[in-house]
Write a structure and sequence with these properties.
Helices cover 39% and strands 22% of the residues. With 157 residues, it is an alpha+beta fold. It has one domain (37-148). The chain has a six-stranded antiparallel β-sheet, covered by helices on one side.
Length: 157
């Protein structure tokens, strides 16, 4: 008697692996995008806090990222834009979301490639006692990322 697997058995195993990976890979990619968005959310909060500190000290809005007491790893594109690996942070870009007590527009994080979405702090009413960020996107996948983080809004920064 010969030992080994038949062709049918091998094909069934390959099909099972294919089905499992077709379910797992999209969930994995969604998790990676959520972690990148979380990194951007933390940066937006830190940058807005730095804008507030600058404004409180000087009674004016910061003209450039270099004036803030916070650093975001990445490449400076201009005085008002810093680009990290996945996001571009824009100073004074959230014109509909001024930082309370300053009159300065907030910082906006914009996804660089893929399905473009933007994250900013609307400084609106608290949700469950907690102030939250907002997010909107240019297409269904980008909006899906925003919705997966419970940040989606139709308003603009």
């Amino acid at each position: 008697m010969k030992k080994g697997f038949t062709l049918v058995e091998l094909l069934v195993v390959v099909m099972i692996i294919g089905i499992l990976s077709s379910v797992a890979v999209p969930n994995y990619m969604r998790s990676i995008e959520k972690s990148r968005a979380t990194e951007a959310m933390n940066a937006v909060k830190a940058l807005n806090d730095a804008v507030y500190a600058y404004s409180a000290e000087r009674a004016s809005c910061p003209p450039a990222f270099s004036k803030l007491l916070v650093d975001i790893p990445g490449t400076t594109v201009s005085d008002t834009e810093v680009q990290s690996k996945y996001f571009k942070y824009k100073l004074n870009a959230a014109t509909h979301a001024p930082i309370p007590g300053t009159g300065c527009p907030g910082v906006v994080a914009e996804r660089l490639s893929g399905d473009v979405y933007r994250i900013w702090n609307p400084y609106g009413a608290a949700v469950n006692g907690k102030r939250t960020l907002a997010c909107n996107g240019d297409n269904a996948k980008a909006i899906g990322v925003c919705k997966s983080m419970n940040l989606y809004t139709t308003s603009q920064p």
